[in-house]
Prior knowledge:
By secondary structure, the protein is an alpha/beta fold. The protein has one domain (7-122): Response regulator (Rossmann fold, 3-Layer(aba) Sandwich). The chain has helices spanning 14-25, 39-46, 74-83, 101-109, 122-139, 144-152, and strands at 7-10, 33-36, 62-65, 92-96, 114-117. A five-stranded parallel β-sheet has the order 2-1-3-4-5, sandwiched between helices. The radius of gyration is 15 Å and the shape is globular. Mean pLDDT is 81; it is low at 145-150.
Amino acid sequence: MNKLKPILLVEDDPRDAELTIMALTEHNLSNRVTHVVDGVEALEFLRYEGKFADREKENPSVILLDIKMPRLDGIEVLQEIRADKSLKAIPTVMLTSSREDPDLEKCYELGVNTYVVKPVDFKEFIASVKNIGIFWAIINEAPSAIKKHYESHK
Length: 154
């Protein structure tokens, strides 16, 4: 069986983070989740900086990214990811409560893979996250060029 691919969860609300991780638990994906609380930590994780300098050289299979966060918001993080040659192919899902058209439009302009508005209903939220996790962490395959890049940085 293939090793489960990691997931990066960027969420400042502890309740939303807990619910997201709980949803991923059902498919045994929660043990591969790294949770960071803002955009600065997300970029440090992705760039192997600060407390993440010694982490395993492996990019996440998917980034679950909130928009409204302190220090650096999700749109700014998405912009940084898409501008970085070694990160731009990582699937990124905006998992946010923002229903504002400018946010949605900006995220798609920057190349977000999916934009999911957090439902108010608990069961709907759990189902959405579970499906995202299954697709991006288990089913989706990265292009071979991306795999080679990851392997060369181990």
